[in-house]
Amino acid sequence: MDELNLFSEFIEDQKKLGQTMPKRKGGRYTKHEQTKRRDEVYRLHFDYGYSARKIAEVMNINKNTINSDIDYWYSKITKKTNILNPEDSIVNSIERLNLQRNRLREALDKTVSFEERLKLERLIMESENKIGQMYLKISNSLAHVGNSVVQAIIDIKNSKEPRLMSLFNIFSVTDKASKEIDAIRERDSKERRRV
Fold first, then answer.
1. Bridge partners, 171 (sequence order)
2. 46 and 90 housed in the same domain
3. Same domain, 146 and 165
4. CB 168 within 8 A of CB 79
5. Are residues 20 and 62 in the same domain?
6. Which pLDDT does position 8 carry in this prediction?
7. For residues 22 and 33, is the Cβ–Cβ distance under 8 A?
């Protein structure tokens, strides 16, 4: 099986830890195990283009764990590249794929050869599949943002110390700083009402 060759270093590390495969029936991964697994998921997903299902099958790890790792990497990439609206990039890609699909469809209408028609139909289907995947990514991204906001609000409500939440971070602040921030927000709110 060629897939096993793709992550031989991962398997070797697991053997050193006394495991032949990272089989889990639940429970937490150690920080080292989690880092190794995530690195391998990154490689298989981004370098080789494997789906979560394929990675889960190849690595013999629960698909939900793999999906969480892929979400983790998309989140890291978004933060690293300072993309505030990753959906914009996805929408642009969808538009390019739609244009490509339209050109392929026009070429298909002009083609007489069965082999050429078959090739073009496959390319059209691949474009439509990619478009569907991008719509799914938009949905997942929106759900991720919503879940992150809800979790941040829960964390703030459960915290005994004052906190300040920005787009990607929550900061602990002193009582004095919290009052100053509230005063600034109040002044800003009054100024906006006057305009």
1. 164
2. no
3. no
4. yes
5. yes
6. 61
7. yes
**Pair 164, 96 in one domain:** no
Q: Which residues contact 162 (CB under 8 A, 6 or more apart)?
A: 172, 173, 174, 175, 177, 178
Helix axes 52-59, 63-80, angle to 10 degrees: 120
- Map residue 20 onto helix, strand or coil: coil
> In the 8-state DSSP scheme, what is residue 174?
-
Do 49 and 97 lie in one domain? The reply is no
Amino acid identity, residue 165?
M
Question: Do 177 and 123 reside in the same domain of the chain?
Answer: no
In which domain, by residue range, is 180 found?
159-195
Same-domain status, 150 and 177: no
For the chain of 195 residues, list the mean pLDDT of each consecutive stretch of 10.
Answer: 54 55 60 91 86 90 92 79 61 80 92 93 91 81 76 74 60 80 84 73
CB 43 within 8 A of CB 9: no
The residue assigned the tokens 């026009």 is 106
SS3 182: helix
Tokens found for residue 127: 């474009």
Based on the fold, state whether residues 1 and 78 are members of the same structural domain: yes
Q: Contact, 67 vs 74, CB < 8 A?
A: no
81 phi-psi bin (left φ>0, alpha ψ -120 to 50, beta other): alpha
**Residue whose token pair is 């943002």:** 145
Which residues, including other chains, have CB under 8 Å from residue 123's CB and lie 6 or more apart? 104
* Count of the separate structural domains present in the chain: 3
